[in-house]
Amino acid sequence: MADDDPIDVVLIGGGIMSATLGTMLHALQPDWSIRIYERLGEVAEESSNAFNNAGTGHAALCELNYTPEKPDGSIDITSAIKVNEQFHLSREFWASLAERTTLSGPDLFINSTPHMTFVRGADHVDYLRRRWEALTDHPLFAEMEYSEDPQVIHDWAPLLMLGRDRLEPVAATRAASGTDVDFGALTRGLIDTLSSQGAELRVNTEVTHLKRERDGLWRVRARHLVGQDRHEVRARFVFVGAGGWALKLLQKAGIPEARGYGLFPISGQWLRCDDQEVVARHRAKVYGKAQLGAPPMSVPHLDTRIVNGRASLLFGPYAGLSPRFLKRGNLLDLPLSVRPHNLVPMLAVAKDNFALVKYLLRELTKSKRAKFASLQEFYPDARPEDWHKQTAGQRAQVIKKDAKKGGVLQFGTEVVTGADGSIAGLLGASPGASTAAAIMLDVLQRCFPDRMAGWRSELTELVPTYGTLLSDDPRTARKVAERTAEALGLTA
């Protein structure tokens, strides 16, 4: 390809979103040229890194923030169903790639790990029981188990019960079909395959500017961070999957659809245990009840995490405030993102979320002893010498305009696309990585609507239930779960 020839697809950011979209587009249009830009020396080193994210394989099996309690006492499972459906799409996508040998060694990135919820106190026990009753009425959650018996909970996850007062009311749910996902390994596998099939990966290269030209193409300006060499390329389609830096690039692109958006950055830390005697006694992901005022991504959990074949335990995350939009971002990220069009939404969010800011500052200033006490609420017999601090990834939550409040803080992901579909970007965080396939299918629909009919056959090869809902057909749901489990080497 000559230097002046336009590239069909430019992907900015070497994370799970770019890897997923690039893989889909190559399968749909193998003749298209693809270039991936990553500002760090390796791909998957920010939010997609295994120790930077929750790694849960979010399926709403254990995360209480997806099942809020309504004023009348009933449990709203709408979000749980949506997230579970979306995660199944990701599993189908990965299974199809594994069957094609496009994605080798699925055990390197996904492993069967039960998902549990654990609560203490009579009120929380009552809530969890009602949540379980509401979820198990739905076919996607019918196999979830529930118990208030300390011995049963001990059998599921011994560390939760060792040293605990046996008179304290406790309850837990368990979904044996849960998974642990190393999104870093998955991303590297996808991008390695793309590179072997002709895609070009440029690491240590930061995209500094995007400009729309009169002919509809995008001029992408980038610089190599080692040699400081600069270059420009023209692209027919640009996807900005740069985590927290996606906003600044969409702002530079000047598309009106990005107006009004801001970001609220939240930092995090884990406590990590690598002692294999301790790790061997807790093969599960256990989520609890969030503290009052805590953001959803800070719900405490004691997780088995399998990275490069070795299991560790993580507890946290302990949230805090940082002006950076990426873990390796800039201290000026937040102030430099302020524009006249997003100032009102950002000020409105600051006013309406003062309690959240106070909570994050309190978490940031917690002593080591206080942080460890939070772990001991989950694992009473935990010993400080078995655990060390691990810095988590940075989360940049979406701020958007709101007609009534001026602006709202959104805990989720937001796809922003240009009117003509030639550019798209992703803002926000959880459940992001776990629902990457569903999000990228949405990007395809928004940006290439005239091609979707022609792509339909290949899309249903990649994701057999694309365009349908598993919850509408329990028999199909069971078959899909069995097929993906077999292809990915999981317990069905």
Automatic annotation (TrEMBL):
Pfam families in the cross-refs = Mqo
Q: Which InterPro entries match?
A: FAD/NAD-bd_sf (IPR036188), MQO (IPR006231)
What are the EC numbers?
1.1.5.4
The lineage's top-level taxon is Bacteria
For the keyword Secreted, the answer is no
Q: Does the keyword Oxidoreductase apply?
A: yes
Q: Which UniProt keywords apply?
A: FAD, Flavoprotein, Oxidoreductase, Tricarboxylic acid cycle
The UniProt entry, under Gene3D superfamilies, shows:
D-Amino Acid Oxidase, subunit A, domain 2, FAD/NAD(P)-binding domain
Which protein are we looking at? Probable malate:quinone oxidoreductase
Q: Gene for this protein?
A: mqo
